[in-house]
Amino acid sequence: MRTSGADAILRSLEAEGVEVIFGIPGGAILPLYDALARGTTIRHVLARHEQGAGHMAEGYARATGRVGVAVATSGPGATNLVTPIADAWMDSTPLVCITGQVRTTQIGTDAFQECDITGITIPIVKHSWLVQDVEELPHALKAAFHVARTGRCGPVLVDVPRDVQEAELEFSYPDHVSLPGWKPPRRGHPRQIRAAAAAIVAAERPVLYVGGGVVNADATAELRAVAEAGRIPVVTTLMAKGAFPESHELHAGVPGMHGPKWSNRTLNKADLIVAAGARFDDRVTGKVSAFAPGATVVHLDVDAAEISKIRHADVPVVGPLKPVLAELATLLAGQAVPQRTAPWLAQVAEWRDAFPLRYAPGGDGDLLKPQRVLEALRDLTAGRDDVVWTTGVGQHQMWAMQYLVCDRPRSFLTSGGLGTMGYGVPAAVGAKAARPDATVVCIDGDGCFQMTCQELATSVLEDLPIVVVVVNNGYLGMVRQWQDMFFEERFSQIRLTHALPDYARLAEAYGAVGIAVDSEDRLDEALSQALACGRTAVVDCRVDPREHCFPMIPAGAAATDVLEYSPEQDAEALAL
Amino acid sequence: MRHTLSVLLENRPGALTRVAGMFARRGYNIESLAVAPTDRPDVSRITLRVDCEERSLEQIEKQMHKLVNVLRVQELVPGEAIERELALVKVAAPPSARGELMALGEVFGARVADLGPDSLVFELVGSVETVDSFTELVRPHGLQELVRTGRIGLGRARTGARSRPRALV
Fold first, then answer.
1. DSSP B166
2. Mean pLDDT across the stretch A35-57?
3. Nearest neighbour of B69 by CB, restricted to A130, A151, A181
4. Where are the alpha helices (DSSP H) in A275-362?
5. Do B59 and A309 touch (CB under 8 A)?
6. Chain B from 77 to 136: CB within 8 A of any A CB
7. Residues A315, A435 within the same domain
């Protein structure tokens, strides 16, 4: 088939089964957009900012497990994708970014809207291609999708000069691609898996420490089989929220800086940590030298470079988690003595009961408590299996992590590793494009919301309705908390105000439903209305700015040195 | 501790940048680096020298293996590999000093690559230590300019390709 490079890109995406792409046109990518206008089966969602397009593609990928695709023009279009690419890199989200580039004859001349985007993104992509010959285009795209989703998932970039999009080629999409240097592991070593099983059988206080890798590997059923066969408590990291049902009796909460005290205690008092698709992130371990000092470590990961990177692995298993966990479950089913962990599970349950999440209840006329907003959302959606949550980054994100209950994978989409404020709204739009049947709710902070709220226009005009719940405390709340706790209350450049902008009216300006609520009495009604309206809605929840997110392990402290909410201190603060 | 790594990679634009960039990004410093195509024009070999702990070395190698253009990573273990360096050394050489300098060169097997009225250029191939000693010896005569390729290396012939491929767990 004789076709242009631009058409070849679309035919390649169609051949990959891509249904939706997110982007914004511009000079160097015009031929591709012309090809879109001439006809394709692919839906294009027009974002308002390339960062939004990138996060939408991430939200789409996280909600489905498929590769997300973002498109932008050269220069500023491409650089606006840098944040989503870095985000996808840190959270191992499969993402293909296609950028226009100036003509090959102009490359290197500082032409209008030229920038070396392949150079800029080298540290944050798995691989990238600057396609200089139209004949290489199908191969590059095939390779891009292959690399993005095999091994440890992540972002790739294909930069296509305008004249390459315009040049003609005899198009056929390759069935396979030859990448001699890309050989992700295809199975775990049976001996290592046996050693892992033996370590689990011998342990008295085992814990499964589960990260986002299990979700990426689509291995949640296998994980559950392992946990149930060995009667092992499971902690799921922020990236793995929902990878193991949170209402399951073996679920032991979320470890880390703002995880419940009992979850961190469970992980730190273990005699065996079975890490699955997790990377001992500093937000989980706290001070590494003090982390789980008595524990033997079994580390299962598809990425060999994560093994012993932070914490030495006594039993390393490199391989794709789905077959590795399946094999482990089979071995445990034959060997494990389920009663063996009964005393340990009883201990964990005792800690759970002893250390519940706590915050100051609001009194009459008191300001709405942010935690209460999350509890209300949890209760209003209880039992529903069609809700997908997204978040921004900060206090509201941590409260969402603490209070929402997720029983299914891919139902909690958040920016973990990079901590990208502004992720929530566009990720929700992307998730809605992926799951039109789902109710997609973005829990956002007022600071985060203002970074990407322009995508409300995309949500409304593309008929991708989402509910945004702004936990509006009028501050950059997490920064405020750190300044309060670690900088002697010297508040510096954190005040945003509750009322400027007026979020409900801003929503209305975008053609969305806007609701403001500042008291507990009206909270359920406002949230119910937003959840039921079937339109894009923004609920501006004006909450108490004094609330800190507890418990908290200060950065660099041992995971057992937890700062907690104290009613006494709270009373003192209020008296002042 | 210093380690020499031999890396085979696809000879493509940007491949070297990806390797070098990985070192910079992860906070490791490359002490020396030599790169050129192998017998296969589509494959290049990098020989690089890095000063790091054994544990960091393992991390470097694993991270390098993840680069799509990288085909193979090996450590050249001292004693099991030969390492050489080429140096061009320009020394002040008035007629009165030429004789002594050339005798010195002969001891080290250095060839005179160029000769001018007041200076000469030695071409020396040898181990890094040999190049070091030679440059120190000629320095008092007036070392004007020096260029070194950085070390290149291969596993020894007698042990076959016994440069140690790093275990990937």
1. P
2. 98
3. A181
4. 282-285, 321-335, 342-354
5. yes
6. none
7. no
Whether cis (ω within 30° of 0) applies to the bond prior to B37 is no
What are the φ/ψ torsions at residue A493 (nearest 5 degrees)? Answer: 55, 50
Are residues A316 and B169, on separate chains, in Cβ contact within 8 Å?
Answer: yes
Write down the pLDDT at residue A94.
98
A303 contacts on B by Cβ (under 8 Å): 66
Distance from the Cα of A317 to chain B's closest Cα (Å) equals 8
Cβ pair A180:B71 closer than 8 A: yes
Alpha-carbon gap, residue A495 to A486, rounded angstroms: 18
Contact B62 A305 (CB under 8 A): yes
Provide the b/e sequence for A223-241 (b: ≥16 CB within 10 Å).
bbbbbbbbbbbbbbbbbbb
Nearest to B70 among A181, A304, A305 (CB): A181
Shared-domain flag, residues A417 and A273: no
**How many angstroms from the chain centroid is the CA of residue A78?**
22
Q: Are residues A243 and A299 in the same domain?
A: yes
Coil/strand/helix, residue A76: helix
- If one counts the domains in chain A, the total is 3
A130, A179, A182, A192: which to substitute to probe chain B, counting the most B Cβ within 10 Å?
A: A182
pLDDT over 70, % of chain A: 98
- Inter-chain residue contact A304 with B168, CB threshold 8 Å: yes
Contact, A172 vs A124, CB < 8 A? no
Gyration radius of chain B over CA positions: 19
- What are A350-373's pLDDT values in tens digits? 999 999 999 988 766 789 999 999
Q: Which of A23-27, A572-576, B121-125 has the lowest mean pLDDT?
A: A572-576
Q: Where are the domains of chain B?
A: 2-76, 82-152
Identify which of A482, A91, A565, A557 has the alpha carbon closest to the alpha carbon of residue A285.
A557
Other residues' Cβ atoms within 10 Å of the Cβ of residue B28 = 16
ipTM computed for the complex: 0.90
Could you give the CA distance from residue A31 to residue A13 in angstroms, rounded to a whole number? 15
Fold of B82-152: Alpha-Beta Plaits (3.30.70)
- From chain A, the residues in CB contact with B62 under 8 A are 304-305, 307
CATH for B2-76, options being 3.40.710.10, 3.30.70.260, 2.60.40.3930, 2.30.30.100: 3.30.70.260
List, for residues B102-131, the tens digit of each pLDDT value.
999 999 999 999 999 999 999 999 999 999
- Pairing assessment for the beta strands B30-37 and B81-92 based on DSSP bridges: unpaired
Residue A22 placed within a domain: yes
Claim to verify: residue A219 and residue A275 sit in the same structural domain? yes
Among A170, A202, A231, the domain-final residue is A170
Chain A residues whose C-beta is within 8 A of a chain B C-beta are 118-119, 122-123, 126-127, 130, 147, 151-152, 179-182, 192, 303-305, 307-309, 316, 318
Q: Which residues of A touch B65 (CB under 8 A)?
A: 304-305
Residue among B22, B59, B71 whose CB faces A181 most closely: B71
Residues A317 and A440 in one domain: no
CB contact under 8 A, B68 and A126: yes
Instruction: Identify whether A568 is part of a domain.
Output: no
